[in-house]
Amino acid sequence: MKKGDKIIDVRDNTEHIVECVDVYDEVTLVFTEGKKYIPINQSININQIADELKRVQMIARKEIEQKFGIKF
After folding, report:
1. E strand or H helix at 6, and its extent?
2. Confidence of residue 45 (pLDDT cuts 50, 70, 90)
3. Cα–Cα distance between 42 and 46 in angstroms, integer?
4. pLDDT in tens, 1-39
5. In the 8-state DSSP scheme, what is residue 26?
6. Residue 71 pLDDT > 90, yes or no?
7. Strands 6-9 and 14-23, bridge-based pairing
8. Is residue 6 classed exposed, middle or buried when 0-12, 13-18 and 19+ CB atoms within 10 A define those classes?
9. Could you give the C-alpha distances from 12 to 8, 9, 16, 42, in angstroms and in order?
10. Whole-number Å distance between alpha carbons of 54 and 71
11. Within the chain, what is the greatest distance between any pair of CA atoms?
12. Domain boundaries in the chain?
């Protein structure tokens, strides 16, 4: 996770922009531009979701091409 990434706080489903990530002894916190600390394990990186969706879409296209002979 890096500065500028968009995340969702799963506790209340709000969207935030990452300012930095702070690592302490037993917890890692995401500090947002809105001056809010969110435990990293309570956040979802929207950029990672988008990348995963692109990967799955590419796999699905290849499977459709192989099965039905359709090119996208």
Report:
1. strand 6-9
2. very high
3. 13
4. 899 999 999 999 999 999 999 999 999 999 999 999 999
5. S
6. no
7. antiparallel
8. middle
9. 8, 6, 11, 10
10. 17
11. 54
12. 6-68
Q: CA angle 60-62-64, nearest 5°?
A: 70
In which residue are the tokens 């699905």 written?
A: 60
**CB-based burial of residue 44 (10 Å sphere; 0-12 exposed, 13-18 middle, 19+ buried)?**
middle
- pTM reported for the whole predicted model: 0.71
Residue among 17, 21, 27 at smallest CA distance from 1? 21
Give backbone dihedrals phi and psi of 58, rounded to 5 degrees, phi first.
-65, -40
Short-list 27, 28, 35, CA closest to 18:
35
Contact 16, 34 (CB under 8 A): yes
